[in-house]
Structure formats: C-alpha cells, structure tokens
Specification:
The chain has 469 residues and is mainly alpha-helical. The chain is 48% helix and 10% strand.
Amino acid sequence: MSADVVTRFAPSPTGYLHIGGARTALFNWLYARGRGGKFLLRIEDTDRARSTPEATDAILQGMAWLGLDHDGDVISQFEGAARHAEIANELLAAGKAFKCFATQDEIEAFRETARAEGKSTLYRSPWRDADASTHPDAPFVIRIKAPQGGTMVIKDEVQGDVKIAHEQLDDMILLRSDGTPVYMLAVVVDDHDMGVTHVIRGDDHLSNAARQMMIYEAMGWDVPVWAHIPLIHGPDGKKLSKRHGALGAQEYQGMGYPAAGMRNYLARLGWSHGDDEFFTDAQAKEWFDLDGIGKSPARFDTKKLEHLCGQHIATTDDAALQQELLAFWDVIGNDAMSDTKIALLSKALESLKARAKTFPELIDKATFVLVDRPIQPDEKASKALDTVSRGILNALTPHLQNASWSRDALEAVTAEFAEANDTKFGKMAGPLRAALAGRAVTPSVFDMLLVLGKEESIARIKDAANPNG
C-alpha cells in the first residue's frame, strides 16, 4: 500500500503562501514522504480575476524555502477546464445531472418565498426531472442530481464520522451557462485524475467534502481518505489573521528563521508524537500519521517557534548552517560576502551557533568576523578604551605575540599578565572586546582570538591601543 499513497497541496494563487497553507503542505509532504508515496502540487487558478503569476511564484518560492519538494510538474487547474466539462457532460448523458434553465430572478424569487414560509432556501430546480422536449432554447447550467432521502457519511481520519442529511445538499451547479466548470467539480476531477488517495486540508473545507462526494459517487470513483485538520489560531484563540501579524512563508525566511526549525514547529501545530517537541525531518517522516492530529485549533506561539529554531541552529552541521546563513544574507539584500569573511564565519559557527535563535541573532554575534579594520567601536565599547585600558592593551601585546595560538596558551598568558599587573581578567576583557569586535557585548574573548587568528587579532589590538597611529 505504501507506494500507492498520493497526497497533494492545492493552493489558490491569490496571494503569498500563508502559514496555514504552509502547514497543510507540510502535513501532505510528511504523510507521502514517510510512506514512499507521491506529493503533488496543483495550483487552483480557475479564478482568473484573482489569480496572478506573482502569487504562483510566491507559493513556489515559499515551498522551495521550506524544502517541500513535489513530484512531477506543477499542475494548473485552469488548463484542465475541458476535462472538467467532459465529466459534467458525462454525468448529464448518464441522467445523473440535468440542464437547468432557471434565471437568477427565478432563483431569488424561490428563495424569498422559502424565507417567508420558514423553509429551506436550498434551491430546488423544477428542471430536475423535466422532459427534454420541454427544454427552451435558452442559456442553461448543468446541475448534479443530489441524492434524495437518507444520509451521507464523511469518514474523516481527524473529525471522525460526519453525517449530513441529503436534504441539506442542493443540486449543485457543475457547469455555468458559459460552459466553464465550477471549483467543486474541478477539484474532484483533478484529484481523481491525479490518483490522489488522501486529501489532507483545513477543516474549513469539511462542508465541501459532502458536495464533492456527490460527484465521486455519481461517477463511481473511489473516494479518497479525508483528513480535515483544524485551523491555526492566534494567541487570543481566534483564527490566525493579519491582525495577529500573520505572515507569508517568505517573510519568515526574511526574518531569519531556519527552514528546519519552521518545519519542526509547523509539524507540532495540531499534531503530536508523545511529548516530543524537537525532532528531525527523518523522525517527522517516520512518526507522522493522521491519528496524531488533534481536533482542536492550534495556537501560533512565536516564542516556541524561536526556541525550536534555536535548537535546530545549534544542532545543524556547520557546513549546512553556513550555506543557509549565506542564503539568508543574500535574501536580506547584503552584498556578497568575501571569501576571507566566509572562511572566518565558518570557523566561528561552532562557538556561536548554540547561542542564537535566528539568523539575525547569529549574524549579530558574528559581527567580529564581518567588520573591517580599522574598527570603529560603538559608544559602549569606546568607554572601555580609556587611557588606562589602552595602556593595558599595549603592555599585553608583546605577551600575545610570543604566545602559541591555542586556547590553553592564551588563557595562561592572560592569567599570568593579570597576576603580574595585580588585576583580574575581567578588567582586561572589556578593552579586548572593544578592540576585537568594536562592541561591549561579544562572544568569548578567547573564541574571537582563535577564530581571527594571531595576525589579525594583534593588528586589531594595536589599532585600539594606538588609535592615532
């Protein structure tokens, strides 16, 4: 069975890839990848007035950043319009759909009467069982014949069995009077033709499932496994929206969250595996299952996101971390980093990555390798470079020049110097931070000395000790 699993993500290209859509894509990706199946991408671009190429690009870029690779080509729903119409006409020929000639005025009059009589406003077309000989030469839509009497059961892996009385379903339009297919028809035909076995999507689509099942059953097609997942809410318990600062996937990339951390966090929004919070992609693929998805909406928590991202930065291989960090550097519009700085950054990552939750934090801590001589100390650092402090740096320099450049040797040299001058290393640390990084708050002095190397470190210390040359 595992090789037969096919999931899909089917966004509408009317804006960016929002965080709820990203989580839906992730759940589909995890379910398919964990079972050796296929994960397909379909752009639901039937709404030509609102669909834009820019939005499609934003969706593709957001998924690329998140690492959610899909199988095969991207499918355009709009391009399948002829196939969708073919199925509507097939249902018409089989007597499972009908031509409806009712005008909008007639439909509205029906609903007004129903409202006045306290009855259901679901439209009941008088053309459902009309003889073809009575059909006028006028525009018509094609409607499906909804089942009458009885109950439809949506077997949902998350929501359980959802029962809907057939009398609550109308004779849904399949083809408009201009011959264009409606969204509900297009979704079903596309999912069938793509071989989709599992439809994992937001529970705001649950009501659509009943209407779509009418088409599956009328065509005699296998109904996919349904899994309608709860929406994401903001901290106030309301549906996540712009008022909560809800952003697109690319904006989170621009804010410097690592993709692995975002995947981990999104996976935990509404799904759980015991008490596990931090996990790798491999573990997520192995563990992810539909029965781990809860029915209650998840709440987006930026602090939890940052905490998980910090863990991923700390545990990521240095080479992979550097590659992603340089990609972020490019995304935020910086000039390309020189080979020299890249080499220094590579050396610095091991000592820096355990203390950063985002890439901007990591870059901030790596400032000492990104600045150029002569370093201009900031206001706080300048206060650490008074006349006495410069004298200490001048006196310390010969000792550093004669030291072998290892942590043990440097710690020993500075300890001996402090003792000989009746001071403590803490008194020396401030001036050294200012000299090496131009800042008062920096990584460990010894980490900076080792990363910068002997020649560059001593040159910076001399610059700070003798600002006038």
